[in-house]
Amino acid sequence: QVQLVESGGGLVQAGGSLRLSCAASGRTFSMYAMAWFRQAPGKEREFVAAFSWSVNSTNCADSVKGRFTISKDNAKNTVYLQMNVLKFEETADYYCNARLPGMDYWGQGTQVTVSS
């Protein structure tokens, strides 16, 4: 199993920045990708950004390109999401996801509130 712990959420004004962290533990050697998703109140969970170890590449949703950056620290088994120029409508719970062959793991989520 893999355990994921997110941190870094909070309240920020529109236009501001936050950095989310996701620390992984357990069978991290089997992970081939980690990603961030978010879910706003009353909406479905949506993809934000991902890092793939298998192809050593990152991918971001079109809505966040140029403003959000996903990065990793292999030594700490941690993935970060740097979020800049946050928008009011990006208020949501942000979830970390780890992918292993045939399995998905999720963190408990961290809340991001963007005030207008």
Key descriptive features of the protein:
single chain, 116 residues, mainly beta, seven-stranded mixed β-sheet, four-stranded antiparallel β-sheet, 59% strand, globular
Could you estimate the helical fraction of the residues in percent?
under 10%
Radius of gyration: 13 Å
Based on Cα principal axes, name the global outline. globular
Mean pLDDT across every amino acid position: 95
In N-to-C order, the SSE pattern is EEEEEEEEEEE
Beginning-to-end CA distance, first to last residue: 40 Å
Number of strands: 11
Secondary structure category? mainly beta
Question: Which residue ranges are poorly predicted, with pLDDT under 50 across at least 5 consecutive positions?
Answer: none
**Strand portion, in percent?**
over 45%
- Helix tally equals 0
Largest sheet: 7 strands, mixed
Q: Could you please describe the fold and organization of this structure?
A:
- With 116 residues, the protein is an all-beta fold.
- The chain is built from no helices and eleven strands.
- Strands 2, 4, 5, 6, 9, 10 and 11 form a seven-stranded mixed β-sheet that branches.
- β9 and β10 form a beta hairpin.
- The radius of gyration is 13 Å and the shape is globular.
- The termini are far apart.
- The relative contact order is 0.32.
